[in-house]
Backbone:
């Protein structure tokens, strides 16, 4: 029995690099597709937002002299490239899907609306929502919060390379300890970097819990759906 009926899965663009330093690792992409198909076959309705940091990060580009708006637009296109890659991998795995873009770019994908995304999921397709919010100055974390709220997801599953929320960055501080669950207020008070502040606030104010887990371990997505406590639940 699936723990959630409808999810918003937020994937990291950086994780798509796998063992590479740039771009898309086809092996990692295929692993993600298999994990997604596994829970799709359980009847879970799936919306996906994916980052673009493996190709281009707007904020980092702005620091190197790019106009911020153009840099963010480049980042939006990077998420579209990743979304198309994931769509292709899902199709190869036999998992029906559709790409919805926040900026008009037919025939690359359909122009996103809440109702198109929900209809696609109800028809048994994975809805891959790319292009961020369509506006600059918003991260893909904020984009995933917005889409999760819009599609009325039960939870946002934030797939990262870390297996949950810690008292400090576990990659830098060996004494960091992991939370099984934590409230949004505790995240604010401890200044923990789960997502950016705008995204976290949106989730809190609209009652969308976040579950942080390590997506890079094959089988972990199904474990989350099965209710195994492998990550951290962030709730009101």
Residues:
């Amino acid at each position: 029995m699936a723990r959630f009926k409808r999810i918003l899965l937020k994937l990291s663009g950086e994780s798509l690099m796998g063992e590479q330093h740039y771009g898309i690792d086809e092996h990692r992409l295929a692993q993600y597709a298999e994990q997604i198909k596994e829970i799709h076959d359980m009847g879970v309705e799936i919306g996906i937002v994916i980052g673009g940091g493996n190709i281009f990060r707007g904020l980092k580009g702005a620091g190197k002299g790019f106009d911020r708006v153009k840099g963010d637009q480049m980042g939006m296109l990077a998420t579209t490239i990743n979304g198309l890659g994931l769509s292709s991998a899902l199709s190869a795995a036999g998992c029906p899907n559709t790409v919805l873009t926040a900026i008009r770019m037919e025939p690359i994908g359909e122009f996103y609306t809440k109702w198109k995304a929900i209809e696609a999921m109800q028809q048994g397709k994975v809805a891959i929502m790319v292009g961020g919010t369509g506006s600059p100055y918003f991260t893909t974390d904020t984009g995933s919060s917005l889409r999760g709220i819009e599609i009325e997801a039960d939870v946002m599953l934030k797939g990262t390379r870390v297996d949950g929320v810690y008292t400090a960055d576990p990659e830098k501080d060996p004494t960091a300890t992991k939370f099984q669950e934590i409230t949004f207020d505790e995240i604010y008070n401890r200044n923990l970097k789960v997502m950016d502040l705008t995204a976290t606030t949106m989730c809190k104010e609209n009652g969308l819990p976040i579950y942080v887990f390590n997506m890079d371990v094959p089988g972990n997505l199904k474990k989350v759906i099965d209710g195994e406590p492998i990550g951290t639940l962030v709730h009101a």
